[in-house]
Amino acid sequence: MRLATVIPAFNEEATIGPVVAGVRATCPGAAVFVVDDASTDETAARAAAAGAHGVLRVSPRAGKGAALRAGFAAALAEGAELVATLDADGQHDPADLPRLLAAGRAAPDGLIMGDRLAPGSGDRIPGLRLGAIRTADLLLRWLARTAIRDSQCGFRVYPATLLRALPLSREGFVLETEVLLGATRLGYRLVSVPVRSIYPPDRASRFRALADGTRIGWYLAGETARELSVRFVNEAGRRRLRLPAVVPPA
Ligand SMILES: Nc1nc2c(ncn2[C@@H]2O[C@H](COP(=O)(O)OP(=O)(O)OP(=O)(O)O)[C@@H](O)[C@H]2O)c(=O)[nH]1
Ligand SMILES: [Mg+2]
Protein backbone atom coordinates (compact mmCIF):
# COMPACT_ATOMS: atom_id res chain seq x y z
CA MET A 1 0.00 0.00 0.00
CA ARG A 2 1.43 3.41 -0.98
CA LEU A 3 1.87 5.77 1.93
CA ALA A 4 2.52 9.49 2.17
CA THR A 5 3.00 11.91 5.03
CA VAL A 6 2.09 15.58 4.89
CA ILE A 7 3.72 17.95 7.37
CA PRO A 8 2.53 21.59 7.39
CA ALA A 9 5.25 23.89 8.68
CA PHE A 10 5.61 27.54 9.46
CA ASN A 11 8.95 28.63 10.92
CA GLU A 12 9.81 25.25 12.41
CA GLU A 13 13.57 25.11 11.75
CA ALA A 14 14.24 23.88 15.28
CA THR A 15 12.20 20.70 14.90
CA ILE A 16 11.44 19.94 11.24
CA GLY A 17 14.70 18.01 10.65
CA PRO A 18 14.15 15.46 13.46
CA VAL A 19 10.44 15.16 12.57
CA VAL A 20 11.21 14.31 8.91
CA ALA A 21 14.05 11.99 9.92
CA GLY A 22 11.78 10.32 12.49
CA VAL A 23 9.08 9.64 9.90
CA ARG A 24 11.63 8.26 7.43
CA ALA A 25 13.07 5.98 10.12
CA THR A 26 9.74 4.63 11.37
CA CYS A 27 8.01 4.43 7.97
CA PRO A 28 10.77 4.02 5.38
CA GLY A 29 8.32 3.47 2.52
CA ALA A 30 6.31 6.66 3.04
CA ALA A 31 6.85 9.71 0.83
CA VAL A 32 7.29 12.76 3.08
CA PHE A 33 5.88 16.09 1.90
CA VAL A 34 6.64 19.22 3.91
CA VAL A 35 4.49 22.23 3.07
CA ASP A 36 6.51 25.26 4.04
CA ASP A 37 4.40 28.35 4.21
CA ALA A 38 6.62 31.33 3.47
CA SER A 39 8.75 30.57 6.49
CA THR A 40 11.38 33.18 7.19
CA ASP A 41 13.80 30.70 8.71
CA GLU A 42 15.61 27.55 7.56
CA THR A 43 12.54 25.27 7.62
CA ALA A 44 12.63 24.35 3.91
CA ALA A 45 16.38 23.72 3.79
CA ARG A 46 16.32 21.58 6.92
CA ALA A 47 13.36 19.56 5.68
CA ALA A 48 15.19 18.85 2.43
CA ALA A 49 18.43 18.01 4.24
CA ALA A 50 16.56 15.52 6.43
CA GLY A 51 15.37 13.71 3.29
CA ALA A 52 11.86 15.01 2.66
CA HIS A 53 10.55 13.58 -0.63
CA GLY A 54 9.11 16.96 -1.54
CA VAL A 55 9.23 20.42 0.00
CA LEU A 56 6.35 22.50 -1.30
CA ARG A 57 6.73 26.22 -0.83
CA VAL A 58 3.72 28.47 -0.50
CA SER A 59 4.02 32.24 -0.77
CA PRO A 60 2.59 34.48 0.55
CA ARG A 61 1.62 32.62 3.71
CA ALA A 62 -1.71 30.89 3.16
CA GLY A 63 -2.28 29.11 6.48
CA LYS A 64 -2.46 25.54 7.74
CA GLY A 65 -5.64 24.66 5.80
CA ALA A 66 -4.22 25.68 2.42
CA ALA A 67 -0.96 23.93 3.28
CA LEU A 68 -2.78 20.69 4.06
CA ARG A 69 -4.80 20.91 0.86
CA ALA A 70 -1.61 21.43 -1.18
CA GLY A 71 0.04 18.49 0.62
CA PHE A 72 -2.97 16.22 0.03
CA ALA A 73 -2.96 17.08 -3.67
CA ALA A 74 0.76 16.24 -3.94
CA ALA A 75 0.31 12.97 -2.04
CA LEU A 76 -2.64 11.91 -4.19
CA ALA A 77 -0.76 12.83 -7.38
CA GLU A 78 1.98 10.41 -6.26
CA GLY A 79 -0.61 7.65 -5.96
CA ALA A 80 -0.75 7.51 -2.15
CA GLU A 81 -3.52 5.27 -0.79
CA LEU A 82 -3.11 6.36 2.84
CA VAL A 83 -2.05 9.88 3.80
CA ALA A 84 -0.80 10.69 7.29
CA THR A 85 -0.50 14.20 8.69
CA LEU A 86 1.55 15.33 11.65
CA ASP A 87 2.83 18.60 13.01
CA ALA A 88 6.28 19.98 12.39
CA ASP A 89 6.76 21.31 15.91
CA GLY A 90 7.72 17.97 17.46
CA GLN A 91 4.39 17.65 19.24
CA HIS A 92 3.72 14.25 17.68
CA ASP A 93 6.10 11.33 18.02
CA PRO A 94 6.87 9.66 14.65
CA ALA A 95 7.28 6.43 16.63
CA ASP A 96 3.46 6.40 16.93
CA LEU A 97 2.99 6.61 13.16
CA PRO A 98 3.24 2.86 12.40
CA ARG A 99 0.34 2.19 14.81
CA LEU A 100 -1.82 4.85 13.13
CA LEU A 101 -0.99 3.46 9.70
CA ALA A 102 -1.75 -0.09 10.86
CA ALA A 103 -5.17 1.14 12.03
CA GLY A 104 -5.63 2.82 8.62
CA ARG A 105 -4.81 -0.40 6.78
CA ALA A 106 -7.24 -2.31 8.96
CA ALA A 107 -10.08 0.20 8.43
CA PRO A 108 -10.40 1.33 4.79
CA ASP A 109 -13.57 3.21 5.79
CA GLY A 110 -11.87 4.88 8.77
CA LEU A 111 -10.43 8.29 9.54
CA ILE A 112 -7.69 7.51 12.04
CA MET A 113 -7.34 10.15 14.74
CA GLY A 114 -4.43 10.51 17.15
CA ASP A 115 -5.74 10.84 20.70
CA ARG A 116 -3.57 12.90 23.05
CA LEU A 117 -6.21 12.81 25.77
CA ALA A 118 -5.93 9.09 26.45
CA PRO A 119 -4.55 8.33 29.94
CA GLY A 120 -0.75 8.40 30.13
CA SER A 121 -0.19 10.17 26.82
CA GLY A 122 2.67 12.40 27.88
CA ASP A 123 2.81 16.16 28.42
CA ARG A 124 -0.33 17.88 29.61
CA ILE A 125 -2.03 20.11 27.05
CA PRO A 126 -2.17 23.70 28.42
CA GLY A 127 -5.44 24.45 30.25
CA LEU A 128 -7.05 26.92 27.85
CA ARG A 129 -6.24 24.80 24.81
CA LEU A 130 -7.55 21.68 26.54
CA GLY A 131 -10.82 23.47 27.37
CA ALA A 132 -11.24 24.49 23.72
CA ILE A 133 -10.53 20.93 22.53
CA ARG A 134 -13.07 19.45 24.94
CA THR A 135 -15.72 21.98 23.91
CA ALA A 136 -15.13 21.23 20.21
CA ASP A 137 -15.26 17.48 20.99
CA LEU A 138 -18.62 17.89 22.71
CA LEU A 139 -20.22 19.81 19.84
CA LEU A 140 -18.75 17.52 17.20
CA ARG A 141 -19.99 14.43 19.02
CA TRP A 142 -23.49 15.81 18.77
CA LEU A 143 -23.10 16.99 15.18
CA ALA A 144 -21.49 13.79 13.92
CA ARG A 145 -23.55 11.50 16.18
CA THR A 146 -20.48 9.49 17.07
CA ALA A 147 -17.80 9.20 19.77
CA ILE A 148 -15.02 11.75 19.25
CA ARG A 149 -12.04 12.57 21.40
CA ASP A 150 -9.23 15.03 20.63
CA SER A 151 -10.95 16.38 17.53
CA GLN A 152 -8.28 19.05 17.10
CA CYS A 153 -5.31 16.68 16.90
CA GLY A 154 -3.31 17.08 13.70
CA PHE A 155 -1.85 13.56 13.88
CA ARG A 156 -4.15 11.56 11.60
CA VAL A 157 -4.33 9.04 8.78
CA TYR A 158 -6.73 9.59 5.89
CA PRO A 159 -7.71 7.08 3.21
CA ALA A 160 -7.14 8.55 -0.27
CA THR A 161 -10.77 7.73 -1.12
CA LEU A 162 -11.90 10.17 1.56
CA LEU A 163 -9.55 12.96 0.46
CA ARG A 164 -10.74 12.58 -3.13
CA ALA A 165 -14.41 12.60 -2.14
CA LEU A 166 -14.34 15.59 0.22
CA PRO A 167 -14.80 19.11 -1.09
CA LEU A 168 -12.47 21.01 1.26
CA SER A 169 -12.63 24.76 1.45
CA ARG A 170 -11.91 25.94 4.99
CA GLU A 171 -8.80 27.85 5.86
CA GLY A 172 -6.32 27.75 8.72
CA PHE A 173 -6.97 25.48 11.66
CA VAL A 174 -10.66 25.08 10.71
CA LEU A 175 -9.86 22.66 7.88
CA GLU A 176 -9.22 19.71 10.18
CA THR A 177 -12.65 20.15 11.78
CA GLU A 178 -14.25 20.42 8.33
CA VAL A 179 -12.55 17.15 7.29
CA LEU A 180 -13.73 15.38 10.40
CA LEU A 181 -17.35 16.37 10.01
CA GLY A 182 -17.29 15.80 6.25
CA ALA A 183 -15.86 12.31 6.77
CA THR A 184 -18.63 11.27 9.16
CA ARG A 185 -21.26 12.64 6.78
CA LEU A 186 -19.81 10.50 4.00
CA GLY A 187 -20.13 7.46 6.25
CA TYR A 188 -16.49 7.10 7.29
CA ARG A 189 -15.99 6.05 10.89
CA LEU A 190 -13.61 7.69 13.33
CA VAL A 191 -10.99 5.45 14.88
CA SER A 192 -9.03 6.83 17.85
CA VAL A 193 -5.47 5.70 18.49
CA PRO A 194 -3.70 6.96 21.62
CA VAL A 195 -0.57 8.98 20.78
CA ARG A 196 2.06 10.75 22.83
CA SER A 197 1.66 14.45 23.33
CA ILE A 198 4.88 16.44 23.50
CA TYR A 199 5.07 20.11 24.44
CA PRO A 200 8.58 21.54 23.96
CA PRO A 201 8.92 24.07 26.81
CA ASP A 202 9.88 27.23 24.90
CA ARG A 203 7.82 27.00 21.76
CA ALA A 204 5.25 29.68 20.92
CA SER A 205 2.15 28.09 19.40
CA ARG A 206 1.14 29.16 15.90
CA PHE A 207 -2.45 28.62 17.05
CA ARG A 208 -3.82 32.01 18.11
CA ALA A 209 -6.35 31.27 20.80
CA LEU A 210 -8.57 34.24 19.98
CA ALA A 211 -8.39 34.43 16.18
CA ASP A 212 -8.10 30.72 15.35
CA GLY A 213 -10.30 29.60 18.25
CA THR A 214 -13.02 32.03 17.15
CA ARG A 215 -12.88 30.78 13.55
CA ILE A 216 -13.40 27.19 14.68
CA GLY A 217 -16.16 28.41 17.02
CA TRP A 218 -17.95 30.19 14.15
CA TYR A 219 -17.69 27.18 11.91
CA LEU A 220 -19.13 24.92 14.62
CA ALA A 221 -21.87 27.45 15.42
CA GLY A 222 -22.89 27.51 11.74
CA GLU A 223 -22.94 23.72 11.53
CA THR A 224 -24.91 23.54 14.79
CA ALA A 225 -27.53 25.97 13.45
CA ARG A 226 -27.80 23.91 10.28
CA GLU A 227 -28.14 20.68 12.23
CA LEU A 228 -30.75 22.17 14.58
CA SER A 229 -32.79 23.31 11.59
CA VAL A 230 -32.58 19.88 10.00
CA ARG A 231 -33.62 18.13 13.20
CA PHE A 232 -36.24 20.50 14.59
CA VAL A 233 -37.47 23.08 12.06
CA ASN A 234 -40.08 22.21 9.43
CA GLU A 235 -39.83 23.25 5.78
CA ALA A 236 -41.86 26.46 6.25
CA GLY A 237 -39.60 27.54 9.10
CA ARG A 238 -36.54 26.74 7.05
CA ARG A 239 -37.80 28.97 4.21
CA ARG A 240 -38.44 31.78 6.69
CA LEU A 241 -34.94 31.43 8.12
CA ARG A 242 -33.52 31.10 4.59
CA LEU A 243 -31.96 27.78 5.47
CA PRO A 244 -31.41 25.09 2.83
CA ALA A 245 -34.27 22.65 2.34
CA VAL A 246 -33.78 19.11 3.59
CA VAL A 247 -33.37 16.73 0.68
CA PRO A 248 -34.26 13.17 1.68
CA PRO A 249 -31.59 10.59 0.88
CA ALA A 250 -32.04 8.92 -2.53
N1 LIG B 1 2.19 25.61 6.33
C1 LIG B 1 1.72 26.18 7.44
N2 LIG B 1 1.80 25.49 8.56
C2 LIG B 1 1.32 26.06 9.68
C3 LIG B 1 0.75 27.34 9.72
N3 LIG B 1 0.38 27.61 10.99
C4 LIG B 1 0.72 26.52 11.70
N4 LIG B 1 1.30 25.59 10.91
C5 LIG B 1 1.83 24.29 11.27
O1 LIG B 1 0.76 23.52 11.75
C6 LIG B 1 1.21 22.71 12.83
C7 LIG B 1 0.37 22.99 14.04
O2 LIG B 1 0.66 24.30 14.53
P1 LIG B 1 0.82 24.54 16.09
O3 LIG B 1 1.30 25.92 16.33
O4 LIG B 1 1.69 23.45 16.65
O5 LIG B 1 -0.66 24.43 16.58
P2 LIG B 1 -1.30 23.36 17.51
O6 LIG B 1 -0.55 22.06 17.45
O7 LIG B 1 -2.73 23.33 17.18
O8 LIG B 1 -1.12 24.07 18.90
P3 LIG B 1 -0.17 23.68 20.12
O9 LIG B 1 -0.98 22.72 20.91
O10 LIG B 1 0.11 24.96 20.80
O11 LIG B 1 1.09 23.06 19.54
C8 LIG B 1 2.70 23.01 12.99
O12 LIG B 1 3.42 22.08 12.26
C9 LIG B 1 2.84 24.39 12.39
O13 LIG B 1 4.12 24.66 11.88
C10 LIG B 1 0.69 28.07 8.50
O14 LIG B 1 0.23 29.19 8.43
N5 LIG B 1 1.17 27.43 7.40
MG1 LIG C 1 1.51 21.82 17.84
Task: Give your account of this protein's structure.
The chain has helices at residues 16-26, 43-49, 64-77, 97-106, 127-144, 160-165, 175-185, 209-232, 235-240; strands spanning 3-9, 31-37, 54-58, 82-85, 110-115, 156-159, 189-194. It is built from 9 helices and 7 strands, in the order βαβαβαβαβαβααβαα. The chain starts with a strand and ends in a 10-residue tail after the last helix. The model has no long low-confidence stretch (mean pLDDT 91). Helices cover 43% and strands 16% of the residues. The relative contact order is 0.15. It is globular. It has one domain (3-238): Spore Coat Polysaccharide Biosynthesis Protein SpsA, Chain A (Alpha-Beta Complex), CATH 3.90.550.10. The protein has a 7-stranded mixed beta sheet, with helices on both faces. Residues 8-10, 12, 35, 37, 61, 63-64, 67, 87-89, 91, 129, 154, 205-207 line the site of guanosine-5'-triphosphate.
Task: Please specify the SSE layout and strand pairing.
Layout: E1 3-9, H1 16-26, E2 31-37, H2 43-49, E3 54-58, H3 64-77, E4 82-85, H4 97-106, E5 110-115, H5 127-144, E6 156-159, H6 160-165, H7 175-185, E7 189-194, H8 209-232, H9 235-240
Parallel strand pairs: 1-2, 1-4, 2-3, 5-7
Antiparallel strand pairs: 4-6, 5-6
The protein binds guanosine-5'-triphosphate and magnesium ion.
Please tally the helical runs, counting DSSP H or I stretches of 4 or more residues: 9
**CATH superfamily (homologous) name:** Spore Coat Polysaccharide Biosynthesis Protein SpsA, Chain A
Mean pLDDT: 91
**Strand order in the largest sheet:** 3-2-1-4-6-5-7
- Class by alpha and beta content: alpha/beta
Assign the CATH class. Answer: Alpha Beta
CATH topology name? Spore Coat Polysaccharide Biosynthesis Protein SpsA, Chain A
The assigned CATH architecture is: Alpha-Beta Complex
